[in-house]
């Protein structure tokens, strides 16, 4: 023992390195063991759903998974296959996986949607937007009024695999363990609880509309946030560095525009889930014939009330237009989106400090900002305006746009505990 201690003392650098390596390795192995236990427990819970008896005449529920393999720096596919796929298969679902980078998929999307009972989006914020966009471009269009009755009622599951997963804050409890977060989200899909989420339709003058479930940002905080990754070598100081160097530009940084908007709209009552039974064929034929032979009804002229638009000119350091999905209230009586116009009089120090807050919660509205509740707005930019919008953390060229709220347009699966918290908070 004395010889061993003497050797360790004489080679203290190697000893220190070995102890650190063994500690790190032991901690890594323990973490892997805990992750395996979480996966096993989740699979056992999913197996209970798969063991449920169903009538032989009832087909298996079909789930279409849209997986973005590029999410989480290319790790999304492995994360999905290790943590989510076993749970979905054990639950008895008939699962079809579609990669979002698959070319020519638009042609097959309609066929897939006609034969699916639920949609699962596996990725980050960009994946959610990409899937909604591709469905729209393929004329499946979950958001189109003509097929809204069919497709907007298909429930959507979200498995957070991306770098930014804003929706997961609304749908699932917070978790620092990635494996637990993914398995909780997948199990929530099996449990079947859903919440309605608002969608923003953002349309330029000539572009196809873009759909967002979080919101639109335009301004200096967004521009600085995009450059944070460039300062990776500064470690925890990279966020402050990106905002600090951003202040070297012309200061104060002002974004000028004009805004027209309409106020909140009254929320209609929920439609009953059960529809009345369809009348027999002979009754439907009789009604059609009677309608055909009857004289056309006289049209009663309706008084068209002009929409009450408000208009203002603004100068701001940042403008954001966001849904209420982050502060979901299932009992509110009005539908609206939040428009936040931040003052352009902030100091450089305030800008750097607020920039760190904005990275954590991009749509936070600081004190001194002008907050507007609107159901629809038109943003006009001065000619020659440069820069970019951030729409659900995806970059788009800044241009004049019309933003329209589509209230409660999509239903997303959520953890039953989160739904209970929302209802409890509403009662209080």
Structure description:
It is an enzyme of class 2 (transferase). Its cofactor is Mg(2+). It is a peripheral membrane protein. Belongs to the AGK family. Its main location: mitochondrion. Strands 6-5-18-15-8-10 form a 6-stranded antiparallel β-sheet. A 6-stranded antiparallel β-sheet has the order 14-13-11-7-16-17. The chain is α+β, with helices and mostly antiparallel strands. The longest helix is centred in the first third of the chain and has 39 residues, at 12-50. The protein has helices spanning 2-10, 12-50, 71-74, 76-90, 106-114, 125-137, 148-151, 167-171, 178-191, 220-226, 238-246, 281-293, 348-360, 416-427, and strands at 62-67, 94-99, 118-123, 156-160, 194-203, 210-212, 215-219, 255-262, 265-266, 310-316, 318-322, 334-335, 337-342, 370-374, 376-380, 388-391, 394-397, 401-413. The chain is flat. 39% of the residues lie in helices and 24% in strands. Among the domains are: 58-192, Rossmann fold (3-Layer(aba) Sandwich), CATH 3.40.50.10330; 215-268 and 307-409, Tumour Suppressor Smad4 (Sandwich).
Secondary structure layout plus pairing:
Elements: H1 2-10, H2 12-50, E1 62-67, H3 71-74, H4 76-90, E2 94-99, H5 106-114, E3 118-123, H6 125-137, H7 148-151, E4 156-160, H8 167-171, H9 178-191, E5 194-203, E6 210-212, E7 215-219, H10 220-226, H11 238-246, E8 255-262, E9 265-266, H12 281-293, E10 310-316, E11 318-322, E12 334-335, E13 337-342, H13 348-360, E14 370-374, E15 376-380, E16 388-391, E17 394-397, E18 401-413, H14 416-427
Helix pairs in contact: 2-4, 2-9, 4-9, 10-11, 10-13, 11-13
């Amino acid at each position: 023992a004395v010889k061993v201690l003497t050797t360790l003392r004489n080679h203290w650098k190697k000893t220190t390195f070995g102890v650190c390596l063994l500690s790190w390795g032991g901690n890594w192995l323990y973490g892997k063991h805990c992750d395996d236990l979480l996966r096993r427990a989740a699979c056992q819970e999913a197996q209970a759903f798969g063991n449920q008896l169903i009538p032989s005449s009832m087909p298996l529920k079909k789930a279409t998974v849209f997986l973005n393999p590029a999410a989480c720096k290319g790790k999304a596919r492995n994360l999905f296959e290790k943590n989510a796929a076993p749970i979905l298969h054990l639950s008895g679902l008939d699962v079809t996986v579609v990669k979002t980078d698959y070319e020519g998929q638009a042609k097959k999307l309609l066929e897939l949607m006609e034969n699916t009972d639920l949609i699962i989006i596996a990725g980050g914020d960009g994946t959610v937007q990409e899937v909604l966009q591709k469905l729209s471009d393929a004329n499946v269009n979950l958001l189109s009024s003509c097929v809204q009755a069919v497709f907007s009622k298909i429930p959507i599951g979200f498995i957070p695999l991306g770098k930014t997963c804003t929706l997961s804050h609304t749908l699932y409890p917070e978790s620092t363990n990635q494996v637990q977060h993914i398995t909780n989200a997948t199990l929530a899909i099996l449990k079947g609880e859903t919440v309605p989420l608002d969608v923003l339709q953002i349309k330029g003058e000539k572009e196809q509309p873009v759909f967002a479930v979080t919101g639109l940002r335009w301004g200096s905080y967004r521009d600085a946030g995009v450059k944070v990754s460039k300062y990776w070598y500064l470690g925890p100081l990279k966020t402050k560095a990106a905002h600090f160097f951003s202040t070297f530009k012309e200061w104060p940084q002002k974004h000028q525009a004009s805004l027209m908007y309409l106020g909140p709209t009254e929320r209609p009552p929920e439609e009953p889930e059960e529809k009345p039974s369809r009348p027999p064929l002979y009754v439907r034929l009789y009604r059609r014939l009677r309608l055909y032979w009857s004289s056309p009804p006289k049209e009663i002229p309706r008084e068209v009330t002009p929409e009450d638009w408000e208009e203002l000119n603004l100068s701001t350091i940042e403008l954001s237009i966001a849904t209420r999905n982050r502060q979901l209230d299932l009992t509110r009586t009005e539908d609206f989106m939040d428009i936040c116009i931040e003052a352009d009089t902030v100091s450089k120090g305030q800008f750097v400090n607020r920039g760190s807050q904005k990275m954590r919660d991009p749509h936070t509205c600081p004190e001194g900002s002008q907050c507007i509740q609107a159901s629809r707005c038109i943003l006009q930019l001065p000619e020659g305006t440069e820069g970019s919008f951030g729409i659900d953390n995806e970059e788009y060229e800044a241009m004049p746009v019309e933003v329209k709220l589509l209230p409660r347009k999509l239903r997303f699966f959520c953890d039953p505990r989160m739904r209970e918290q929302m209802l409890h908070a509403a009662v209080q």
